[in-house]
Write a structure and sequence with these properties.
Helices cover 44% and strands 20% of the residues. The chain has one domain. The protein is built from three helices and three strands, in the order αααβββ. A three-stranded antiparallel β-sheet has the order 1-2-3. The termini are far apart. The protein is of the alpha+beta class.
Length: 148
């Protein structure tokens, strides 16, 4: 066998050289998996917050002012009852700070806009100390028609 084709012998100084590479790749993989898992978890929390906000807006829209309906024959929201119903719904759904509602009315319709802020804590990347929230929005529109 010629010396150029002979397998190179290992040097003692090469021992353990792969360890920093493996450690770096393993840390990168944990980071990528954490971003995927926690990103999907945050998107799920965002979808839940949107659904809660839409449901709360519909609950508020169901609080019809019966006096206006009896006198004028048109639909209007009883704002006091709507606010109480929406607050109760948001509290039951554990929506936190940043949640709220706006009721806008004109001659033809009433629009109820609700915001729900849900806390989200990362599962994999919790060691970073980053806690956040997923804020969802929903609206319901109550339309009164004079053509009945």
């Amino acid at each position: 066998m010629s010396p150029s084709l002979a397998p190179a012998s290992r040097s003692v100084t090469d021992a353990g050289r792969i360890t920093p590479f493996v450690a770096t790749v393993a840390a990168a993989l944990v980071l990528v998996v954490g971003l995927v898992v926690d990103g999907c978890g945050w998107l799920g929390a965002l979808e839940r917050a949107n659904a809660i906000a839409r449901e709360a807006a519909r609950v508020g829209g169901q609080q019809v002012d019966r006096d206006v309906l009896a006198v004028d024959g048109r639909l209007a929201v009883d704002e006091r009852r709507a606010r109480a119903a929406i607050d109760a719904y948001l509290a039951a759904a554990e929506c936190g700070a940043g949640s709220g509602m706006v009721i806008e009315a004109d001659a033809v319709s009433t629009t109820i806009r609700v915001t729900c802020a849900l806390a989200y804590r990362p599962l994999v990347l919790s060691f970073t100390g980053l806690d956040g929230s997923a804020e969802g929005q929903g609206a319901a529109r109550l339309v009164s028609s004079s053509d009945q």
